[in-house]
Amino acid sequence: MAVFERPAVIQISQERAHPALIEARNLTVNYEGDDTALEDVSFRIERGDQVAIIGPNGAGKSTLIKALLGLLRPSSGTFELNVPREHIGYVAQHEAVDWTFPVSVRDVVMMGCARRIGWFKPPKREHQRIVDQALARVGMSDFQHRQIGELSGGQRRRAFIARALAQDAEVLILDEPFSGVDSGAQADLMAVLDRLNRDGLTILLSTHDLDLTFGRFPKVLALKRTLIAYGEPQHVLTAETLSQLYGQRLVTWQNGREVSVFVDDHHCTNC
Ligand code: ADP
Predict the structure, then answer these.
(1) Distance between Cα 203 and ligand 1 center (Å)
(2) pTM of this prediction?
(3) Share of the chain above pLDDT 90, in %
(4) For the chain, what is the mean pLDDT?
(5) In the 8-state DSSP scheme, what is residue 69?
(6) Domain 1-83+171-208+216-271 has CATH 3.30.56.10
(7) Which of 27, 34, 173, 224 has most ligand 1 atoms within 8 Å of its beta carbon, as the pocket-test mutant?
(8) Domain spans of the chain?
(9) What is the pLDDT of residues 125-155, one digit of tens each?
(10) What φ, ψ does residue 98 adopt, rounded to 5°?
């Protein structure tokens, strides 16, 4: 396999005149008894950004998200959040949900209002209205009375996005939202995310699927234990960056044009 020198990190469009919505500074995460999952990662997310975190399996994408959510403590470095944590909505890759539990989509979305409703109190009309709006924004109004386990993968993701909206999320963080979702549902999900972003939501999601990243995200953060590159896709999704992320690059020619094919040759446990 080709050996690459560690590149200078590309950071583009990083305005510094005002505080970022989220700023990671020199973030390092070590799991107990394990190798370093993230090392010296720094970046800024501005309000209204839509960022795809890319990298091979084991690159540290979920670790970064968990650290951001405060679910695990960095070994060193800091996160500066200029948004209350309760306004950060999270859609996990695998919700810890008993899918056979008799709970409807509407019930799940209402859970996003739990903080506003208060313990042991019934939802009021205003909470019902918030749930109606959240369901409508993700195109799930017609499915609100379905048992949650009856939904397809893409519909489940949309239901959990609606829960985050009911929670009044300003930032939406999704861990591999497209995995296990068929291509039609991926397009629906992407359309929902685009609409929410246009409405002002800041969106940060991880994906190992490069096809979904090309041309769809205004910013891309390339991660492989360290930050490889961050910025606009045309500056990040280069042959050099992709070969650093995914391993060997084969160059072929199609209709007289050079086409790069990346061989995803390893899981990144020791990268
Ligand atoms: P990705 O989301 O990009 O696939 P992860 O953040 O899940 O990557 O994993 C990054 C590295 O941290 C991998 O080497 C993985 O094996 C390790 N790792 C992830 N979770 C744990 C854990 N709970 N305990 C120990 N090591 C972990």
Answers:
(1) 22
(2) 0.85
(3) 58
(4) 85
(5) T
(6) no
(7) 34
(8) 1-83+171-208+216-271, 98-169
(9) 999 999 999 999 999 999 999 998 899 889 9
(10) -85, 105
